[in-house]
């Protein structure tokens, strides 16, 4: 046993627990869907990234089963070592078509795109200019780079311009990096203004669109929302959210894709995901492209839930998307609200420090197109009942 050496970690954990800053692990006993079984009870799911309710779609199931019959289960090794199937080539073409770019590439995860690619894009004498609320995978990727980094205030275009003006003459190259949809607040990056400023100061742009695909731009993401498919230099995203599958994606010019898979350690040194996953991901892109009404229904449900939650008395912060937080503030109060919601059949997770700054704990609600009107109304009723009992509203 090594507890004499590692005992300090127990103390650290207990400190986190006492502050209400630990994460419970809840067992999902069915497929991810609008009304799954979690820890033995049926709940209304408000904690999933499965915005378009595709994670259990029969068409994705059929695609995976066909792929297993043709190509088996595992990838065998890293894609760069053991090769990959025609499904992977088809997926890469589908990514490019979906994102409106010359070429596409799939990664093992969205995190792997940022952690593996960002360190390879710039060198010493270069600089990243990064939004203050960018995802942790962006932060980690930039930390691995020899380039410097400057942080601009969240979505503050004045501060971004001041930062670009300051670094313009000092550094050789610059990349402005931003989330498309910020995952904790649900607000949307001002990508049109960001791109305009980047162009003015000769900077490149890198957008993490993980929460934008299937949501913005008729489902094609934030670059489609702003008509910037030909302007953003690096478009990355995820199959594990609205697409209902697994893995990350990158879209851009062919030379960007060639460079990415030849230098990203996360791509080169990680086992490829199974052929069945590639088949499901390709099918998801096809469905999103052919069913724009699915995206419209998602926005209708989001609009109703957000408006009613506010009318009850909850602060939804800066939400502009199907991520609709209920801002609470205190971590312990947020945890108690989440636990009581779960006890009443509503699965909505408390987001606490370090995922968000201290004092900004919230319940992050994520709307799923599979939720019925009755589901939304029941969730709102419970929110109001418990919120009044806890003196939140």
UniProtKB/TrEMBL annotation:
Required cofactor(s): pyridoxal 5'-phosphate
Highest taxon listed in the record's lineage: Archaea
Protein name: Glycine C-acetyltransferase
GO molecular function, a single term: pyridoxal phosphate binding
Pfam family, one: Aminotran_1_2
Domain Aminotransferase class I/classII large positions: 42-381
Keyword terms, alphabetized: Transferase
TM helices/strands, residue ranges: none
Keyword Transferase on entry: yes
């Amino acid at each position: 046993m090594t507890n004499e050496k590692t005992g300090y970690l127990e103390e650290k954990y207990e400190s986190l627990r006492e502050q209400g800053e630990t994460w419970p692990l809840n067992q999902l006993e069915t497929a991810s869907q609008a009304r799954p079984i979690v820890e033995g009870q049926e709940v209304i799911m408000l904690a999933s990234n499965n915005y378009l309710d595709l994670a259990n779609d029969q068409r994705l199931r059929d695609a995976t089963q066909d792929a297993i019959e043709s190509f088996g289960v595992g990838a065998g090794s890293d894609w760069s070592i053991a090769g990959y199937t025609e499904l992977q080539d088809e997926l890469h073409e589908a990514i490019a078509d979906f994102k409106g770019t010359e070429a596409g590439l799939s990664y093992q995860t969205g995190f792997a795109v940022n952690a593996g690619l960002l360190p390879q894009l710039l060198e010493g004498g270069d600089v990243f200019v990064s939004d203050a609320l960018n995802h942790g995978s962006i932060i980690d990727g930039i930390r691995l780079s020899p380039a410097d980094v400057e942080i601009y205030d969240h979505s503050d275009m004045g501060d971004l311009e001041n930062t670009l003006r300051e670094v313009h003459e000092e550094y050789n190259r610059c990349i402005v990096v931003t989330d498309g949809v910020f995952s904790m607040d649900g607000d949307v990056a001002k990508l049109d203004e960001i791109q305009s400023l980047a162009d003015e100061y000769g900077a490149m742009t890198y957008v993490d669109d993980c929460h934008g695909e299937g949501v913005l731009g008729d489902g094609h993401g934030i670059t489609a929302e702003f008509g910037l498919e030909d302007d953003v230099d690096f478009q990355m995203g995820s199959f594990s959210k609205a697409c209902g599958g697994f893995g990350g994606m990158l879209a851009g010019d062919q030379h960007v894709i060639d460079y990415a898979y030849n230098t990203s350690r996360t791509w080169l040194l990680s086992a490829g995901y199974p052929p069945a996953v590639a088949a499901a991901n390709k099918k998801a892109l096809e469905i999103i492209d052919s069913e724009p009404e699915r995206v419209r229904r998602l926005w209708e449900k989001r609009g109703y839930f957000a408006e009613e939650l506010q009318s009850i008395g909850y602060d939804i912060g800066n939400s502009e998307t199907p991520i609709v937080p209920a801002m609470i503030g205190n971590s312990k109060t947020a945890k108690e609200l989440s636990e009581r919601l779960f006890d009443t059949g509503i699965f909505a997770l408390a987001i606490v420090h370090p995922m968000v700054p201290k004092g900004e704990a919230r319940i992050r609600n994520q709307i799923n197109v599979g939720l019925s009107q009755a589901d939304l109304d029941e969730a709102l009723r419970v929110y109001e009942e418990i919120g009044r009992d806890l003196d939140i509203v």
